């Protein structure tokens, strides 16, 4: 398998998809809800995913595709080559703000991440990694993450976890917010992961993400030294939804030990 060839194919595919999305703002946007009123999908999400499926199958019909909109294959095993795709991560931002959303793509072989991509469509900024060869932002190498203390950290977290809830100890999260330098929330898991792997955030946690939210980011994280687990400190399950934590290695375990307690 020629990873360089697949990487070149993926980068072109992502740039082409980004151009389609930018052009879509002058066209009709059809918005539907999925599981609830905050879980949205548009005709553009489906159009872009269908484009990915078509082009990947033309490249190699044996490659399987796991996509958020379900237009690829039914995946019940990580055997073989699998593309994990979210055509627009941050659909609400896409609809409401026309910014702060990402294309995210991961390429895995037998469960091992080989290629990862996070593309900020409106900034035309591509972060990508090839396993064992480092990570890049617009083709410039990204440095390994530098150590820091929890007091120096800026973390990505949804403010809803600071109030009383049935999933996580909100008092410990409130203490975390009092301890760190600052918090941010962007409404796109892929964007928050992109900020962690480039050192602009030092951690990001979520109570429920899907494989397509984080597949591409996981590959990039490994190349810059970020640690990815669920909130129990276990490997993220790429065949189901799971809790999620990505962090600078110098604070990852401290977050788990002192500030994160699931109910």
Structure overview:
This protein has 263 residues and is an alpha+beta fold. The chain starts with a helix and ends with a helix. The protein contains 7 helices and 14 strands. The chain has a 7-stranded mixed β-sheet with strand order 3-4-5-6-7-8-9, with helices on both faces. The protein is globular. 33% of the residues lie in helices and 26% in strands. It has helices at 3-24, 43-59, 91-96, 170-179, 189-197, 211-224, 252-259; strands at residues 31-33, 40-42, 64-67, 81-89, 102-109, 112-120, 125-130, 135-137, 140-141, 154-156, 182-184, 203-209, 227-229, 242-247.
Structure keywords:
263 residues, alpha+beta, seven-stranded mixed beta sheet, five-stranded mixed beta sheet, 7 helices, 33% helix, globular
Q: H/E series, N to C?
A: HEEHEEHEEEEEEHEHEHEEH
Question: pLDDT under 50 segments (min length 5)?
Answer: none
Largest beta-sheet characterization: 7 strands, mixed
What is the overall silhouette?
globular
Instruction: Count the DSSP helices.
Output: 7
- Total strands: the figure is 14
Please state the average pLDDT score. 94
- Report, as a whole number of angstroms, the end-to-end distance: 44 Å
The percent of residues in helical segments reads 25-40%
Task: Put the structure in a nutshell.
The protein has about 260 residues and is an alpha+beta fold.
Break the fold down into its secondary structure elements and pairings.
Elements: H1 3-24, E1 31-33, E2 40-42, H2 43-59, E3 64-67, E4 81-89, H3 91-96, E5 102-109, E6 112-120, E7 125-130, E8 135-137, E9 140-141, E10 154-156, H4 170-179, E11 182-184, H5 189-197, E12 203-209, H6 211-224, E13 227-229, E14 242-247, H7 252-259
Parallel strand pairs: 3-4, 10-11, 10-12
Antiparallel strand pairs: 1-2, 4-5, 5-6, 6-7, 7-8, 8-9, 12-14, 13-14
């Amino acid at each position: 398998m020629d990873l360089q060839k697949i990487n070149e194919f993926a980068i072109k595919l992502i740039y082409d998809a980004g151009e389609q999305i930018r052009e879509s703002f002058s066209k009709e946007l059809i918005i539907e809800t999925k599981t609830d009123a905050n879980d949205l999908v548009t005709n553009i999400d489906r159009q872009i995913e269908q484009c990915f499926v078509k082009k990947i199958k033309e490249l190699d019909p044996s490659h399987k595709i796991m996509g958020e909109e379900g237009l690829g294959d039914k995946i019940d095993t990580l055997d073989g080559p699998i593309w994990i795709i979210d055509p627009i991560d941050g659909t609400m931002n896409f609809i409401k703000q026309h910014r702060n959303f990402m294309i995210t793509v991961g390429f895995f072989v037998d469960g091992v991440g080989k290629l990862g991509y996070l593309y900020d469509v409106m900034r035309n900024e591509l972060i990508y990694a090839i396993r064992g060869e480092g990570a890049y932002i617009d083709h410039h190498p990204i440095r390994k993450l530098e150590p820091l203390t929890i007091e120096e950290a800026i973390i990505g977290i949804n403010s809803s976890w600071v109030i009383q809830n049935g999933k996580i100890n909100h008092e410990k999260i409130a203490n975390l917010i009092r301890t760190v330098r600052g918090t941010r929330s962007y409404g796109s898991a892929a964007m928050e992961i992109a900020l962690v792997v480039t050192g602009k955030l030092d951690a990001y946690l979520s109570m429920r993400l899907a494989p397509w939210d984080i597949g591409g980011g996981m590959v990039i994280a490994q190349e810059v030294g970020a640690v990815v687990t669920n909130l129990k400190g276990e490997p993220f399950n790429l065949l189901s939804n799971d809790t999620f934590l990505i962090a600078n290695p110098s604070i990852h375990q401290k977050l788990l030990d002192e500030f994160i307690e699931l109910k």
